[in-house]
Amino acid sequence: MTSKAFIMVLCVVALLNTTMSTSVRAQQSAPHQALSLTPPDPHAKLERRVGIGLLIGSAASVALGIVFVALAKTSNDSALANNVYDPSAEDRRNAFQVTHAVFFSLGAASFAGGMVLLWDR
């Protein structure tokens, strides 16, 4: 082997040694960098649970709104049953209409609140 070839081999070995030791140092220092991250927000878990609860509550509220829509329709149909006017059925229908509007509004508001809490998670 000539001296030029020997010097080339030494340079390649030195370059490989330097590259490998740099990657090993980077791998060894990676766990220490992970430990130096800022701690998680202590309220994040609570916000996530409240957000999920609001979404579940909004689904239940919309379901109740649908039930009261059906009850309002039934009361409206019974107000004029057999061509006899029933004022109490009309009062029930009006109460059911107000109630279903309240439940739909509550469902929309709780859905919006739940999405705001879960948006960044």
Task: Give the arrangement of secondary structure elements.
Elements: H1 3-35, H2 44-79, H3 87-118
What does this structure look like?
Helices cover 83% and strands 0% of the residues. It is built from three helices and no strands. Helix 2 (44-79) runs antiparallel to helix 3. The model has no long low-confidence stretch (mean pLDDT 79).
**Low-pLDDT segments:** none
H/E series: HHH
Which word captures the global form? rod-shaped
- Average residue-wise pLDDT: 79
Q: How big is the Rg?
A: 35 Å
By secondary-structure content and strand pairing, the structural class works out as mainly alpha
Oligomer: single chain
**Biggest sheet: strands, sense, closure?**
none
Number of helices: 3
Q: How many structural domains?
A: 2
Measured between the Cα atoms of the first and last residue, the distance is 63 Å
Helical residues, percent: over 70%
Number of strands: 0
Query: What share of the residues does DSSP label as strand, in percent?
Result: under 5%
Any descriptors?
121 residues; mainly alpha; 2 domains; 83% helix; rod-shaped
What is this structure, in a nutshell?
With 121 residues, this protein is mainly alpha-helical. The chain has helices spanning 3-35, 44-79, 87-118.
